[in-house]
Design a protein that fits this description.
This protein is α+β, with helices and mostly antiparallel strands and about 280 residues long. It is built from 8 helices and 14 strands. Strands 1, 2, 3, 4, 5, 6, 7, 9, 10 and 13 form a 10-stranded mixed β-sheet that branches. It has a two-stranded antiparallel sheet with strand order 8-14. A hairpin with a 2-residue loop joins strand 11 and strand 12. Helix 7 runs antiparallel to helix 8. The radius of gyration is 20 Å and the shape is globular. The two termini are about 30 Å apart. The relative contact order is 0.13. The N terminus is likely disordered.
Amino acid sequence: MRIILRVYLSIVAAIGIAGAVHSADPVTFGLQDYRGRQHQMSEYADRPVMVLAFLGTECPLVKVYGLRLQQFADTYADRGVVVLGINSNRQDSVTEIAAFARQQQLSFPILKDLNNELADCVQAERTPEVVVLDAERKVRYRGRIDDQFGVGFSRTEITASELTDAVEAVLAGREVAVTYQPAEGCLIGRMRPTDSDSTVTYAGQVAGILNRHCVECHRAGEIAPFALTDYEQAAGWADMIREVTRDQRMPPWHAEPSAVHFANARGLTAEEKDLLNRWALAG
């Protein structure tokens, strides 16, 4: 089944995304890059392979892989492979995307996926994450770029190159051996339906929790990779906040629960975790 999804980029520029979540369903779109240029799938009709690279401007792992993606794009350009960066994060503005591209020295286009329609269409979950489309624009691979870097680790050598292997297979007319490999990195900051019945709000509860436990590091000029000092920033990172607090990765506090009280304890209470979880789920 083919699903047509349409959302307006602005009053005068429409975005249309058609496609779906299975490899049998072709994907198509119309999106603007950060320079304001419209990109239609049809203009790449002669390209045998398209790589959609889902990126975020503040995710540390994206910054690690930026140069590698550019080198990949340069290496495969002569073989007809086109690489398009896709930014689906609600918290990343066009201005921020432009600054990110300059800082990372990325020359391939980066398109703004408003309302994360394209990310939803191909089931992209994180940044960085790549989706390989064949000549018919069917999904042949989705997942990580390779296995060298991840959350909390780096290897001296690459032992699995899923992106390269998938592209080589498609170019050679072979089946892709690994069609999915979970991506490491940051969850895409999605726009979600709002639960109007939720009693948890940013102003009422969440801002206070973030100010007590997170903003010391998550503000401009501090060690954290992104700020959490206003609603838009916090809302964009809500799913990631939910994940890292649930897994007890953040705030960084690893002391065992005991009868001893630490004056500088950073850990969240069960109630605070529950409030953050409910807020994220409420959109």
